[in-house]
Amino acid sequence: MSEYRLAEKPVLNVLMALGWQVLSPDIALAMREEENRVILKPVLVEALRALNGIGAGDAQAIYNDLATLSDNEEWQRKLRGGYSRRLTGENRDRPISLIDFKKPGRNRFHVTRQFRVAAQRPRVPDLVLFVNGIPLVVIEAKSPLKTTAKAEEAFEQIKQYERDIPRLFFPNAFNLVTDGMATLYGATGASSQFYTPWPDAWPRHRDEFSDDLAKDLWCLCEPSRLLDLLAHFVVFEIDPETGRKIKKVCRYQQFRAVNKAVERAAEGKHRKGLIWHTQGSGKSLTMVFLALKLKTHLTLDAPTLANPNILVLTDRIDLDDQISKTFLACGLPNPTQCGSVAALREAVSRGGNGQILLSTIFKFAGSKDPIPNSANWIVLVDECHRTQEKDLGAYLQATLPDAHFYGFTGTPIKSTDKDTYARFGVVGEGYLDKYGIDDAVRDGATVPILYEGRKTDWAINEAEIDILFDRWFVDLPDDKREELKRKGLTLATIAKHPERIRLIAMDIWEHFKTVCQPDGFKAQIVAVDREAVILYRSALSAVIAADLERGGSEAEDAQAKADAMIACIYSKSQEDNKPSENPEVAALRAELEAHYLDDAAEKDVKKRFKGFGQQPSLLIVCDKLLTGFDAPIEHVMYLDKPLKEHNLLQAIARTNRTCAIKLANGGEIEKPNGRIVDYIGVTAHLDEALQSYRSEDVENAMRDIAVLRNDLKEAYARYRAQKRAMGLEGMDEKAAAYAAAKLAAGGQEDDWFDLQRLTRTFIKVYGDLSPDPAILEFTAEVKWASAFLRLATQAISKDESLDHRSYSGKIREMLERHVHVTGLSTTIRLRNITDPNFADDFATEGKAEPELQEAFVRKSAELRRVTRELVDKNPAQYGRFSERVLEIIRRFEEGQLAAADGLREFEELTGDIEAEQDAHAELGMDENAFSILRIIEAIVPDTDHATLQDAAIAIGAVYSDAAATQPAFAHMEAYLRSLRQQVRRILTEHGIGETKVIREKVEEFAIHGYGGAA
Question: Domain Helicase ATP-binding, which positions (predicted)?
Answer without folding.
Answer: 264-430
